[in-house]
Amino acid sequence: MKRAIVFGATGGIGKAIAAQLAAKGWSLYIHFNHSSQEAEKMVAEFIDKYPSQEFFPLKLDFLAEDEVIKTTVASLLPLNAAIFTQGITNYQFLGSQELTQIEKIMQINLLVPIKITSLLESQLLKRKHGRIIFIGSVYGGQAGALESVYSASKGGLSSFAQGYAREVASAHLTVNVIAPGAVDTPMNAIFDAETLNEVKNEIPAGRLAEPSDIVFWVENLLDKRSDYLTGQTIYVDGGWLV
């Protein structure tokens, strides 16, 4: 049985990934922090549609103490893949941000994903085609003003994936980053319609990405034929910034 954990599964991209993987025969852990009702709803729907697969909600606060994270990871059934879609940002000048907010962004977007990867390593190395996929950002390759901390966290994911992939490549555990540009998800709902239209006009493809545009590349990286692609950051941005 193929089993994956989707971190941030109740978010726009995470939900689309989970739905497609469930349809493709994967059993899933549906990770959430605050959105317990949405996670439970997703699990119930998946169980109803795919009764031969297993689905579990999994609560974990990425700001929790290390012991909580260790205990949670230790409780998981064997996994073939871990997909990290969770992430936060804070759109303002660096000097206006609280120090605790800076730390929170780095913790959720970069530090805890690295810690969880470390904790999952021993079991993923046992899989014939183990996979770790991080959802990064185009800003990890070309940082954005007013999102400098966010950009640093996503750029850090790309650097980590490049280095860590070399450590585990001989075991066919691949580590890659998918870096979207602007995606039509609730995370971008903080911007008004005028601002979003300005962004669309800057994108050569002429539109924001749909979550399905990202899901396509997740599916490709999960395929067993992708063993030779590792340590890469794949920019899915409609030709916008890179």
How is this fold's topology laid out?
Elements: E1 3-7, H1 12-23, E2 27-32, H2 36-49, E3 55-59, H3 66-74, E4 81-84, H4 99-124, E5 131-135, H5 148-168, E6 174-180, H6 193-202, H7 211-222, E7 233-236
Parallel strand pairs: 1-2, 1-4, 2-3, 4-5, 5-6, 6-7
Helix pairs in contact: 1-7, 4-5
Q: What can you see in these coordinates?
A:
The chain has a single domain, classed as 3-Layer(aba) Sandwich (Rossmann fold), CATH 3.40.50.720. Helix content is 43%, strand content 15%. It is built from seven helices and seven strands; from the N terminus they run E-H-E-H-E-H-E-H-E-H-E-H-H-E. Helix 1 packs across helix 7 and helix 4 (99-124) runs parallel beside helix 5 (148-168). The protein is globular. It starts with a strand and ends in a 6-residue tail after the last strand. One of its GO terms (biological process) is monocarboxylic acid metabolic process. This is 3-oxoacyl-ACP reductase. InterPro entries: NAD(P)-bd_dom_sf (IPR036291), Sc_DH/Rdtase_CS (IPR020904), SDR (IPR050259), SDR_fam (IPR002347).
